[in-house]
Amino acid sequence: MTERAGSRGVVAAALRLFDERGFEATTMDDVAVAAGVSRSTLFRRFGSKDDVVFADQEELVESVRALLDASHGDPVAAVRAAAHAVLRAYTSRPEVALRRYRLVRAHAALRDRELAMTARYQALFTQHLSRGYGDPRRLLAAEVLAAAVIAAHNHVLRAWLRDPGEGGPSPAARLEEALEFVVAGRAAPPGGSGGPVPAGGGEVLVAVYPAGASGEEVLARVRAALGGAP
Amino acid sequence: MTERAGSRGVVAAALRLFDERGFEATTMDDVAVAAGVSRSTLFRRFGSKDDVVFADQEELVESVRALLDASHGDPVAAVRAAAHAVLRAYTSRPEVALRRYRLVRAHAALRDRELAMTARYQALFTQHLSRGYGDPRRLLAAEVLAAAVIAAHNHVLRAWLRDPGEGGPSPAARLEEALEFVVAGRAAPPGGSGGPVPAGGGEVLVAVYPAGASGEEVLARVRAALGGAP
DNA sequence: CCGAGTATGACACTGCGTATCAGGAAAAGG
DNA sequence: CCTTTTCCTGATACGCAGTGTCATACTCGG
């Protein structure tokens, strides 16, 4: 690793070009010329064109991994702290975050790439939440909670990206509120039902019965649900 | 549309080649020759090499969208039914699902592509759960619940893909249990033992049908599923 | 039998990504 | 101070995905 600063400059130049001319309209040769390096070096350092855009994100993922690995207390608390750390990494450099947000929103390929990035955070969270548990029940709980935390984080982050200057609570405060909501387990909106699955309004029928029930019993109940068909 | 069956055959030939020789080792020319069409036609029909692998998944996404659009009852119930429909689409054709599972696991590019696919389901769920609500609180709830449902579905699906012949409850039953866990809102595992998860001791029958089907048709299919009871 | 719309195939072209080789700068070693 | 080794860079060539264009065959309606 000769100089990390060099890569920073390359990334900056690339993002500027992508922003001005469009992502696919800019070739790697253009970036090479603008950054003052060869195309070979570009691919050698970043691997692919997409990776130039997400170079610093990669570092962020690694720092989150380190953060979780170093934590010793409550896993849920550690994951919450990690979510805050990620959000702070965005909000602390609004120009960078907003430029990439515009870029990613405009190009489907980059959107997919960012999804993959998010999935890596989610995998880290899941792994940390299910540490040492072989129990599949716990694994389910870990996966669901990780997904919920990621969703909450992305909700707050997107809101901030859409309107960074908006008044009201800080992003961190909003995230804390959202995480509280998640951990409180109110995944179902208060108005909704949430109970066992009823028959759908008329388009779909979902029936769940213990298999202990006899065939005739099941048939009878389905018939009843259908409105007493013969 | 001349013949949809033609595309099916092309996909089958392509998947076979990808499976045998590897994904990136197989060129689109190879696929074209094996499928008996030109490379031009291949790109015209599927758009990209990845899309050949996920062609039928695309149809599944559309059917889920249609399912949700057509539903009128409780949004949460509709989303649960949709998750069941997706799972069933996999488990009803084990050979196809398992071959693609092997393929996707082996190649990073396809993994990312599948993540994008999952994200589309999640977006559909979110959209349906937050119908008509401008309230950001509701939007957060919808996003979190959608993410949790997806996580539960993927948990069950992955377990089945890893070991399709495993004994115990059916995939549908496992999903129902997992969804119950999600909707019950106990995302965070308490320190205690089992938790409030319903004891899914016995088998359960889960049936999902479009309501376009007549009552008799539904009864007939349930009867058939029960083993041809009179 | 004939035109309109359409699916197909053939061909050329751009650009990403990889592999290989040569040259030069920095370190290692005497 | 000079040599050897190592590593980074740049240049060239190549494979292949994906796009655009044009000519041909096929279908449908008149």
Automatic annotation (TrEMBL), chains A, B:
It comes from the Bacteria. GO terms for molecular function: DNA-binding transcription factor activity; transcription cis-regulatory region binding. This is TetR family transcriptional regulator. Residues 27-46 bind DNA. Residues 4-64 form the HTH tetR-type domain. PANTHER family: HTH-TYPE TRANSCRIPTIONAL REGULATOR PKSA, HTH-TYPE TRANSCRIPTIONAL REGULATOR RUTR. Keywords: DNA-binding.
